[in-house]
Description:
mainly alpha; 6 helices; about 45% helix; globular; disordered N terminus
Amino acid sequence: MSVTMGTTDRSPTLDESWTSRAACAGGAGRSGVSAGADPDAMFVQGAAQRDARLVCFACPVRMECLLEAFETGMEFGVWGGLTERERRAMVRQAAGSGVPWRQRLLYDSELRARFEQERLRAAEPVEARGTRRRAGL
């Protein structure tokens, strides 16, 4: 994402360079999942979204990505490891609260716990993930 000053009515966030560090862009958090360095791989439909989400689990800028999706009203694609359906559910849940997304995400301990659990799962060797899944964990 690039921001040109003066051509947008949304003021840039403190650090919009997060996109260059994103796992889907081949950044430092790259998890090795086959989405490659192509952000377009995050705009898939149906069951393919489940695979696309895996790229996000070890991404160092996952929260910034999710915040971007909420603040700009992104309706499509996987952002911050959440599918379109998951983000829509969060929007419905937040309706009428008046709490800005930045603050909401910062203090959402449930979401942070989920992100940490997914990050740890992404760090496991692939064999361990398959074993745990077969065991129903």
